[in-house]
Amino acid sequence: MRQEPPILEVKHLYKLFAPHDFRGDRKMAYKLLELGATRKDVLETTGITAAVSDVSFEVKRGELFVLIGLSGSGKSTLVRCLNMLHRPSRGEVLMDGEDITQYSEAQLRELRRTKVSMVFQHGGLLSHRDVLGNVAYGLEIRQVPKEERQARALEILRMVGLEGYEHEALGSLSGGMKQRVGIARALANDPEILLMDEAFSALDPLVKNDLQFELLRIREQTGKTIVFITHDINEAFKLGDRVGILRDGRMVQVDTPERMLEQPADEYVRRFIHNVNASKVLSVRNVMTVPGCIVKQSDGAHVALTNMRTSGVSSAYVVGEAMHLRGIITLEGALGVREGRLTFEEAIIKDVPLVDNPDLPIADIVPLAAKAAFPIAVVDEDHVFRGIVTKASVLSSFVA
Ligand SMILES: Nc1ncnc2c1ncn2[C@@H]1O[C@H](COP(=O)(O)OP(=O)(O)OP(=O)(O)O)[C@@H](O)[C@H]1O
Ligand SMILES: [Mg+2]
Fold it and tell me: Which pLDDT belongs to residue 112?
């Protein structure tokens, strides 16, 4: 199968900040950076701050990509280069293959209106408007008719858990609620990419936890591509499909949380993630895999046997309407049906080890994994089958 091209590609991106009265040589700064000089060296030698140096990475469509780094590592500068709030000094930012660093102001305005939205840590909201007014604002600018924009805004407010708050004044909302409004406002434009710069960093842990969960849910529901910035490694590993670590403006590693834990690129990364207990940070979602074999309840035992044979496995997950999990059928069970000893329904083992929250920390499912005869099936709150977790993946997540 042909692989889909990434929605976003950043290639050798630099953002240099020079003092207003700068008369020196930028070329010298690039040369030093190319030779691997640190930001401090470059600043001392040239007077230029290399906020972002030679950063390259890709974001896949639908991916939740997290950028992490200490304060000053260049996270905000980098993310602002992704919608050209900062013009990069060098390098390319390709969106669907088009280099947006070459865009005109008009093209950029259009891009920010339709394709890329940003959620900020603070503010960015219109304090004189109510919740609905904030969310509908972007649509108003695009001259979407009033009824349509209200309907759309209400739908989004429901999605972010703000139903019933439409007419609240912004000032009366808590920090967490305001962030929900921020997310709703960004989503109202139906962008393809959502950029979130420390959107949850100022929130207290419980509220943060709620919003993280909400974000994962929204992501599932909308399939949006998200670039999420944080300085909290727990948050990064909890949310990120992949995580990029920035240090002094350079990208030191881009990987999945699991791989980063297993194979940190260097000592800096290792120390950065050192205090993370993998089993607490990684959730079921992070280690979940696709089941080897699925059969529809309506298909019956013959299909089950064929599928098991082609997949080389001795059991299959049985699903009903809309991927609702019904249970497991084993090879023996399916043969029993074929020989007329049981009905297909009787052959389905209903008592399957099950987790009904993909966001549960792995530590919480260890006891279940330890005594399970089959991989653990993961369903969501609506009992839709999402994947499986093997005993091995649970236990190996403890090796940090
Ligand atoms: N407009 C600017 N002019 C000059 N230097 C800047 C400017 N913006 C950022 N910098 C410098 O660039 C570097 C990266 O800053 P940036 O704000 O991108 O870091 P950050 O990772 O977002 O930090 P934080 O976690 O504190 O938000 C810092 O050294 C900062 O001082
Ligand atoms: Mg920042």
Answer: 93
One domain for residues 198 and 326 = no
Domain CATH number, residue 183 = 3.40.50.300
Distance CA 357, CA 350 (A): 18
Pocket test for ligand 1, best of 77, 82, 122, 235 (most atoms within 8 A of CB): 77
Total domains in the fold of the chain:
2
User: How much is the average pLDDT of 234-258?
Assistant: 93
Q: What is the pLDDT of residue 25?
A: 85
Q: Which structure tokens are listed for 368?
A: 């279940």
If one residue of 13, 17, 118, 248 were mutated to test the ligand 1 pocket, choosing by the most ligand atoms within 8 A of its CB, it would be: 17
The burial of 370, by beta-carbon neighbours within 10 Å (0-12 exposed, 13-18 middle, 19 or more buried), is given as exposed
Domain span holding position 63: 57-281
**Cβ of 213: how many Cβ atoms within 10 Å?**
15
- End residue of a domain, out of 266, 281, 296: 281
Q: Provide the token pair at 7.
A: 């929605």
Which among 9, 117, 7 is positioned nearest to 60, based on CA atoms? 7
